[in-house]
Design a protein that fits this description.
Layout lengths: L3 E11 L2 E9 L16 E3 L6 H13 L8 E2 L3 E2 L5 E8 L11 E5 L7 E5 L1 E8 H7 L5 H10 L3
Parallel strand pairs: 1-6
Antiparallel strand pairs: 1-2, 1-3, 2-9, 4-6, 5-6, 7-8
Length: 153
Protein backbone atom coordinates (compact mmCIF):
# COMPACT_ATOMS: atom_id res chain seq x y z
CA UNK A 1 0.00 0.00 0.00
CA UNK A 2 1.23 3.51 -0.82
CA UNK A 3 2.47 5.66 2.02
CA UNK A 4 0.14 8.44 3.11
CA UNK A 5 0.88 11.91 4.38
CA UNK A 6 -1.39 14.59 5.80
CA UNK A 7 -0.69 18.29 5.66
CA UNK A 8 -1.89 21.85 6.04
CA UNK A 9 -2.01 24.48 3.31
CA UNK A 10 -2.00 27.70 5.33
CA UNK A 11 -3.10 30.76 3.40
CA UNK A 12 -3.70 34.45 3.91
CA UNK A 13 -4.97 37.33 1.84
CA UNK A 14 -2.98 40.54 1.76
CA UNK A 15 -5.21 43.05 0.05
CA UNK A 16 -6.26 41.32 -3.17
CA UNK A 17 -3.31 38.90 -3.14
CA UNK A 18 -3.46 35.32 -1.96
CA UNK A 19 -0.33 33.97 -0.27
CA UNK A 20 0.47 30.44 0.86
CA UNK A 21 2.87 29.26 3.56
CA UNK A 22 5.45 26.70 2.45
CA UNK A 23 8.35 24.96 4.17
CA UNK A 24 11.74 23.90 2.84
CA UNK A 25 13.02 20.46 3.89
CA UNK A 26 16.15 20.44 6.02
CA UNK A 27 19.11 18.14 5.82
CA UNK A 28 21.95 17.70 3.39
CA UNK A 29 19.92 16.34 0.46
CA UNK A 30 17.91 19.54 0.03
CA UNK A 31 20.58 22.04 1.10
CA UNK A 32 21.18 23.35 -2.43
CA UNK A 33 17.69 22.71 -3.85
CA UNK A 34 15.09 25.43 -4.09
CA UNK A 35 12.62 25.44 -7.00
CA UNK A 36 10.45 22.32 -6.78
CA UNK A 37 11.72 21.40 -3.30
CA UNK A 38 9.31 23.31 -1.04
CA UNK A 39 6.17 21.73 0.39
CA UNK A 40 3.14 22.26 2.55
CA UNK A 41 3.93 21.21 6.14
CA UNK A 42 3.01 17.52 6.14
CA UNK A 43 4.03 14.09 7.31
CA UNK A 44 3.18 10.43 7.34
CA UNK A 45 0.53 9.03 9.66
CA UNK A 46 -0.59 5.63 10.88
CA UNK A 47 -3.69 3.87 9.53
CA UNK A 48 -5.47 4.21 12.88
CA UNK A 49 -4.79 7.96 13.16
CA UNK A 50 -7.26 10.62 12.04
CA UNK A 51 -5.64 12.34 9.01
CA UNK A 52 -6.66 15.87 10.01
CA UNK A 53 -5.26 15.33 13.52
CA UNK A 54 -2.06 14.06 11.90
CA UNK A 55 -1.90 17.12 9.64
CA UNK A 56 -2.23 19.44 12.65
CA UNK A 57 0.44 17.46 14.53
CA UNK A 58 2.83 17.59 11.58
CA UNK A 59 2.28 21.33 11.17
CA UNK A 60 3.20 21.88 14.81
CA UNK A 61 6.22 19.54 14.60
CA UNK A 62 7.57 21.33 11.52
CA UNK A 63 6.86 24.92 12.59
CA UNK A 64 6.63 24.87 16.38
CA UNK A 65 3.18 26.49 16.10
CA UNK A 66 -0.20 24.91 16.82
CA UNK A 67 -2.80 25.40 14.09
CA UNK A 68 -6.56 25.76 14.36
CA UNK A 69 -9.39 27.24 12.34
CA UNK A 70 -11.99 26.29 9.75
CA UNK A 71 -10.25 23.54 7.79
CA UNK A 72 -11.23 22.98 4.15
CA UNK A 73 -10.57 19.45 2.88
CA UNK A 74 -8.74 19.46 -0.47
CA UNK A 75 -8.65 16.66 -3.04
CA UNK A 76 -5.93 14.05 -2.37
CA UNK A 77 -2.87 14.16 -4.62
CA UNK A 78 -0.30 11.53 -5.54
CA UNK A 79 3.36 12.53 -5.52
CA UNK A 80 5.96 11.20 -7.95
CA UNK A 81 7.11 8.46 -5.57
CA UNK A 82 3.53 7.22 -5.14
CA UNK A 83 2.84 8.83 -1.75
CA UNK A 84 -0.77 9.97 -1.32
CA UNK A 85 -1.11 13.39 0.34
CA UNK A 86 -4.31 14.45 2.10
CA UNK A 87 -4.41 18.19 2.73
CA UNK A 88 -6.56 20.80 4.37
CA UNK A 89 -6.50 24.53 3.69
CA UNK A 90 -6.96 26.99 6.52
CA UNK A 91 -6.67 30.76 6.77
CA UNK A 92 -4.09 32.04 9.22
CA UNK A 93 -0.86 33.87 9.74
CA UNK A 94 2.52 32.81 11.03
CA UNK A 95 5.91 34.50 11.15
CA UNK A 96 8.22 32.32 9.04
CA UNK A 97 11.29 33.71 10.81
CA UNK A 98 10.09 32.29 14.13
CA UNK A 99 9.52 28.64 13.28
CA UNK A 100 11.20 25.83 15.17
CA UNK A 101 11.24 22.40 13.60
CA UNK A 102 11.74 18.96 15.06
CA UNK A 103 14.91 17.14 14.01
CA UNK A 104 15.86 13.83 12.44
CA UNK A 105 19.10 11.88 12.56
CA UNK A 106 20.96 10.25 9.66
CA UNK A 107 24.42 8.92 8.96
CA UNK A 108 26.34 11.87 7.51
CA UNK A 109 28.57 11.94 5.61
CA UNK A 110 27.40 8.68 4.00
CA UNK A 111 29.24 5.53 5.15
CA UNK A 112 31.13 7.58 7.76
CA UNK A 113 29.59 5.82 10.73
CA UNK A 114 28.78 9.26 12.19
CA UNK A 115 25.22 10.32 12.98
CA UNK A 116 24.15 13.93 12.59
CA UNK A 117 20.89 15.65 13.50
CA UNK A 118 19.20 18.01 11.06
CA UNK A 119 16.07 20.14 11.28
CA UNK A 120 13.20 18.54 9.38
CA UNK A 121 12.39 22.03 8.06
CA UNK A 122 15.23 24.52 7.65
CA UNK A 123 13.17 27.54 6.56
CA UNK A 124 9.66 28.68 5.69
CA UNK A 125 8.11 31.57 3.84
CA UNK A 126 4.98 33.10 2.34
CA UNK A 127 4.64 33.06 -1.44
CA UNK A 128 2.11 34.42 -3.91
CA UNK A 129 0.49 31.65 -5.96
CA UNK A 130 2.63 32.19 -9.08
CA UNK A 131 5.88 31.98 -7.09
CA UNK A 132 4.58 29.08 -4.97
CA UNK A 133 3.94 27.06 -8.16
CA UNK A 134 7.66 27.37 -8.96
CA UNK A 135 8.86 26.60 -5.42
CA UNK A 136 6.52 23.73 -4.46
CA UNK A 137 6.84 20.01 -5.23
CA UNK A 138 5.22 19.69 -8.68
CA UNK A 139 2.49 17.28 -7.52
CA UNK A 140 1.36 19.77 -4.87
CA UNK A 141 0.57 22.46 -7.48
CA UNK A 142 -2.89 20.87 -7.71
CA UNK A 143 -3.49 21.88 -4.08
CA UNK A 144 -2.68 25.51 -4.92
CA UNK A 145 -4.98 25.44 -7.95
CA UNK A 146 -7.82 23.93 -5.92
CA UNK A 147 -7.44 26.52 -3.16
CA UNK A 148 -7.38 29.33 -5.71
CA UNK A 149 -10.59 27.98 -7.27
CA UNK A 150 -12.33 27.56 -3.92
CA UNK A 151 -11.56 31.15 -2.98
CA UNK A 152 -12.70 32.33 -6.45
CA UNK A 153 -9.49 34.18 -7.20
Amino acid sequence: MAKQSAGILLYRKTGEDLQVFLVHPGGPFFKNKDDGAWSIPKGEYEADEDPLDAAKREFEEETGKAIDGDFIALSPIKQKGGKIVLAWAVAGDIDPKNITSNTFEIEWPPRSGKKQAFAEVDRADWFDIATAKIKINAAQIALLDELNGLLNL
